[in-house]
Amino acid sequence: MMRVFIFLLAVATVTFARAQDRKAEDLINRIEIDGAIPKDFRSGKSLLLISCSEQTDCTDWREMAAEAQPFLADAGIDAIATYFLEDILSGVEPSRTFLQAFDDREITHLVFLRHDTGGYQVILTEFNPREFVLEGQAGWDTKAPELRDAMTNTYRAVSTSGQKLRNLLILNQPEFGDMVNIFTGRRAEFYDLNFESDKLAIYPFADTAQIREVMADYPYKYEIIDPEIPEKELRSEGYDFVLYYVHTRAENAKKLLGYEVNDKETSFVSESMEDGKPVLNTYSKDSEVYKFYIKHVYSGNIFLGKKWDAAPDWPTALSNYISLLRNELLNN
Q: By C-alpha distance, which of 282, 284, 289, 272 is closest to 328?
């Protein structure tokens, strides 16, 4: 699988830049349910990917995984790692890095477990190293009001599918996957003085008029660019820096970006500047937040800023990042 990944890495950069904040349901909706268990499900390596609708609480997603894993093991599905799906889809660089990590581990199949107001849905499909799931890709699913019933249906369908069981020594308890290292260069908790002289590229991730409204406070040159331009071609187009963000639960956003996280912490303090004075806000570690950063295209160095400045909505998070950047680079 790695023989195709060098090419696919560039494709994935464009794909996720086009929709940086892709939600789990958008990915799942690509799958065409055809009623058949995808081939070789009992002989390949799978991931268990858990998600919830916006109307349901998913703070107990680890408990969901613990209940689901024994059913998968009994069915012969070797789910070697479990992730919260929104972490994987949290941004351009996490998504790209997770894809490569899963390709390295020779993942062949995906088990989606989704909780919404109607109950639980299990979807079985193949893993595609280009972008997890292709549009129209075939899959099997079952739905039930209770998780146990959905997993029982899955066990029965897979174990009676006629597929030969080749998976042995399957985990009976979930193995929660680690956050990936998204950095290709140096991680910096400050700002680059070259921001002043070099142009910043922004892939369109929301309404461009709204992006421009927030970026009006950015003191240097920037441009919202064609989403089809791969990152590796930005320098030839005149851009030395590119704006990215992660969007997931605050605790995992910190882990993805290399911050130290104390397991005893239940919330994090976020900072911004207003009228020259610091403004502090506290958000639960389980709250979904955006955290922006700027990446130097050539070196891969990323500039997070001196303070944790994440916020539950992207305009506030981007405004926080810019306000702290202005205070540091213009006033000092």
A: 272
Q: In terms of residue numbers, what domain contains 72?
A: 2-159
What is the rounded distance in angstroms from the CA atom of residue 160 to the CA atom of residue 304?
A: 51
Q: Is residue 171 part of a domain?
A: no
Backbone torsions φ then ψ of 262, nearest 5 degrees: -90, 125
- Residue 125's nearest CA partner among 52, 51, 43, 28 is 28
- 170 φ/ψ angles, rounded to the nearest 5 degrees: -80, 140
Sequence-ordered list of residues with C-beta below 8 angstroms from that of 138, at least 6 positions apart, any chain: 31, 32, 33, 34, 36, 38, 125, 126
Per-residue pLDDT of the chain (332 residues; tens, 9 = 90+): 333 333 333 333 333 333 334 478 889 999 999 989 999 999 999 999 999 988 888 888 999 999 999 999 999 999 999 999 999 999 999 999 999 999 999 999 999 999 999 999 999 999 999 889 999 999 999 999 999 999 999 999 999 999 999 998 899 999 999 999 999 899 999 999 999 999 999 999 999 999 999 999 999 999 999 999 999 999 999 999 999 999 999 999 999 999 999 989 999 999 999 988 999 999 999 999 999 999 999 999 999 999 999 999 999 999 999 999 999 998 86
- 113 strand-pairing partners: 50, 122
Do residues 205 and 123 share a domain? Answer: no
Domain count, the chain: 2
Distances in whole angstroms, Cα of residue 67 to Cα of each of 102, 105, 133, 145, 160 = 23, 24, 25, 15, 21
Neighbours of 238 (CB within 10 A): 12
DSSP 2-70: GGGHHHHHHHHHHHHHHTTT--HHHHHTT-EE-SSPPTTTTTSEEEEEEEE-TTS--TTHHHHHHHHHH
Whether 322 is covered by a domain: the verdict is yes
Q: Are residues 32 and 92 in the same domain?
A: yes
